[in-house]
Amino acid sequence: MNLWILEITNKLNRTNTDILFGDHAAKDKNLNQEDVENVIKTIQFGKVEESKSTEENKRVCFKKYFKTTEETYFAIVKYEAEFIKVVTVIKKKGKY
Known about the structure:
It is built from three helices and five strands. The protein has a five-stranded mixed sheet with strand order 1-5-4-3-2. The protein has 96 residues and is of the alpha+beta class.
């Protein structure tokens, strides 16, 4: 894993830190309650997707496959001082 990703992700424990949704993720993505729960699980327990993470904006992408819905969630987040902010969410059918 890239050093800058390790440096950012070690700032906060993602399993018990507050996760807040930014304007784009909350309003423009039309997420239902199940989607919101899946996004939170993706951030807490998902794997880092290095190819979709950007060092210049310090944004980290997590991905997780949910077998029940057969969908993969990609959550792009920005680590703030006290919380993790969801920038955007991408849902894809199937396992990636």
